[in-house]
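The passage that follows is intended for readers who have already worked through the single-chain material. We present the inputs for a multi-component assembly, then the predicted structure in tokenized form, and finally a short commentary. You are encouraged to pause after the input and sketch how you expect the pieces to fit together before reading on.
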Amino acid sequence: MNKQNPEQDQPISLYQSHAVIVSTIIGVGVISMQRGIAKEVGPDGIWTILIGGLIVLVEIVLITRLMQKFPGKTLAQFSSELLSFGKKRWLGKVLSIPLLVGIGWYWLLTIAIVTRTFSEVAISAVFPQTPMEVFMITMLGSACFAAGQRPELIARFNEFLMPFLFIPGLLILTAWMEAGDWENLLPMFQVTDWKKFLQGMLTSAYSYSGYSVLFVYMAYYQQPKKAMRAHILATGTVIVGYWVTIAASISIFGPFELANLMWPTLDLIKQVEVPGQILSRLESAIIGIWVVAVFTTLVNMFGVLVDISLTTFNLEERFRKWLAWGSLPFGYLVANRPANLEQLFRWNDLAGIYEIVMTLVIILILSILTRLRADKKGDQNASSSA
Amino acid sequence: MHPLQRSLSIILLISLLVTGCWDAREIEERASVIALGVDDHPNGIEVSVQMPIPIKVVSSGGGGGGESGQNAVQLFSGQGKTMSDALEDIENQSNQRLFFGHARVIILSESVVRKGIGEFLDFLRREPEIRRRQWPMVVKGTAKDALKTSPKLTQIPMEYLVDMVEAGVRFGHFADVSLGDLFTDISNPAKEPILNYMEVKPYKIQWVGLALLKGDRLVKVLKRKESENLLRIRDEMVGETWDVPCGGDQGHLVIFPTKMKREIKVKQHKDVPKINIHLTLEGSVSEKICEKVELDHPGIYSKINRLASIFMEKRAQQLIQDIQKTGVDSFSIGNHIRAHHPDLWKRIDWKKVFPKADIRVIYHVNIRRIGLKAK
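Having made your guess, compare it with the prediction:
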């Protein structure tokens, strides 16, 4: 396990790519997203979550298209290629650094936010006496172990853990059937305030954050040409999962109560009653499963952060582990920054919009450059053939 | 493995295993609260908790032994300005810290609910150990007295109360209001909460009706016979049996409802809407003490249907008038308007319109069967 042999690693399969997207996006957001959405748009959350998902789907399609043109290359590699002019390779390296730092900063920030949010939930819901540092360091530490592996291995790890994510989904459906009230979902589509609706749409879109990890993982795909369908399917899976979560929450609690709940999904699970009183307090079990969801998000984010640093500086494979452990303190420090929950939620929203914008900027710059290069090449070809 | 890595992984493994130690509380280290009671007190509020005595509570499979009633539990009371304050007062009396994970009942005294319960509901909302699925109820007199009752049917007194409420809800007689429902109803501007209303008797507690709340304050108490119509209109529950005078004759027929469907129709008349509530009930005759009515006469079913409907409509209409006087929409008609007629909801201020609204209840009773006796 310690001695990596890159040739032995199987490249990421289509199903694994599906797993990577699903388990990266489903993370801490799923436990609290309903509150913000209900506050802004009330019962219309069942629409904004779909629209927010579509926004993200468009971004994923754009990333996939771009990456398909550079099979086997990560963002660090092909951006520096695109940005170097003539023989000046160093120029490309230098020019690509703002892009890489921009997106890398997002990854680091998300690692911090995910770790912190997880600890906050665990403390406020089940472990009130446990110090927060313990959660954060354990979470980050174990994520580092996994993140020190090659992306192919991380993808396999995702493939193995993804099925666990469906267990809470089943419980949420049960709760919906048991306690749902259709009147709470009505009135449907009553947009009175378009500004708020737009805000609700954005809040919904933030809850899907994390898709930018494709900038790295797609470089290790076995069949990048066929990835589009798998990506759309994966995003679809997440959208359906989120829709069920939010529709069940609104239906059970109503839009007014939902705005009062700190961690609505936790209360949603608490609502489930298992007959026979075998498990009367399901939330501890669910937090256990939810650790998996959070952990895969963390590992994938950490993995890309490490991989992008590695490929940027052209380091040898053996440095991968040290990079992972080296970035742990930074993650920990940033995670400690938000003073309270209010700030943490603001950071979360800011990170969400930052990812959408940063990804778009990267896609735009690189797509235009690709087009220009292609034209130039076409010209050269034309002139050479003439 | 690299030695540094090995040591790191050992540290990590240990830290993974010890996570949660700070919160590890074995079952014998917990003082489990079964029921919470809240009363008025000159100093603020008085909170009483019922806790089972572990050594005296023996599982039924254990074969005899164990004590029941008040001998199996101990009552603790604490006073304070706030809920947390009062509970800390209790913790200063008990041997362990309180654990609310097993609490099933929250008993509120009538006088507390008249003053408003919002303040200490806040504590219940924040505390993660409190489950949303437990039964809040209002009790005539003090909650402490309710916790002191010693029914003999179950080992732990409050288990009896839980069983009673659960059975009542299952048969459609009691209001199905859990703590979570109470929170939800208070949050919803279109809804007003209701709670089950109990009375303490020696060795038992009796359900005597419903408490109607406006926000978090009690405004009216309904008696048993009034409650059934409210439950039918509000929650589509079947309700109790009812006696119908046999037209012109002495005596009564008893209708036992088994199935229930509610339909609310709203007609908009300028500003004051006209609301028709159709209640379609299926049922059977469970008792007949009239001499002249023979249940094997042709056409007798439709006659009974009409009699039963008219009788019940009158009673329901009376209830609606009474409740309209209080100005609190306990029927949740407001929520129906909010959900199904959003335009109307935005145009009118329902809280002001409700007392003036023209609300009709129309019963459609369908007698299906008459039991084992043919006549």
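Commentary: Chain B has two domains: 26-221, 241-369. The longest strand of chain B covers residues 252-267. How closely did your sketch match?
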